[in-house]
Amino acid sequence: MNFYYYQPASIMQVIPVHYGVQQNTDNFRTSIISLVETLEHEAKQNYTITQLCTRFAFQRRRFYDVVNVLEAAGCCQKTNVDCFVWLGMDNVKTHLQNLSNEVNQQNADANIDDIFQTSDSVTISNLSTQFLLSFIAFNRPALDIKKISAFLSRNNNRLKTTLCKLYQISHILEVVGIISKSMMPGEVVLNKQFFPDIKVKASNDSLDIESLLSRPVDNLNSRVFAERWIHFNKVQEMSLPRSPIFMVPSPISA
């Protein structure tokens, strides 16, 4: 599935940026906040990652992580390897709504493995999209990071890598205010102002008389999300460590 929706009509001219943050700054959180606040107030333009790394005192590798996470949330779009266009925080709700429409209307009957595709390569970009998709596809405003990690790594045996990267992703999304921590340990919440209006629509090929009689449209929402959640919980059960079984020899009779 293609979960990206913005395509610029033309690539804007790269505009040089002015350096505003001391290069020795080593506060990742402060750098992210400063970056977002600045880009929100500047005129939309095609930024270069190299210049912004210096301007906001980011390590290049970590800045790529920030851009990949924010792109998955709909805040920006890369125009090439080293450039991106800032779309704004206002675009997050629209982006997630489009994501919801695709997964819950156009592909409501899709298999869960088609919605959440796994591969041996665990990238920040793909994992960020699937992380945000989890709230939408399961219609859950709050999810446990460890459980999401187990689910997203169910087919590739990359649980530790997935969990480590999800912590990085959730930190970036929390700093910019898209998600927040709940009162439950390890649980994060997709903040209300960004949560899309979720509606489920059956695919056209399933709207025959027999299916409508056995599956009323009024119950479609609850059925789709219930089936997905059952699958999610089955993965959790399979990922639980199993206690070894010890064979106890029977006593020898005298």
Automatic annotation (TrEMBL):
Main location: nucleus
Keywords, comma-separated and alphabetical: DNA-binding, Nucleus, Transcription, Transcription regulation
Biological-process GO terms, alphabetical: regulation of transcription by RNA polymerase II
Compartments (UniProt record): Nucleus
Superkingdom assignment: Eukaryota
GO cellular component, one term: RNA polymerase II transcription regulator complex
Name this polypeptide is given: E2F/DP family winged-helix DNA-binding domain-containing protein
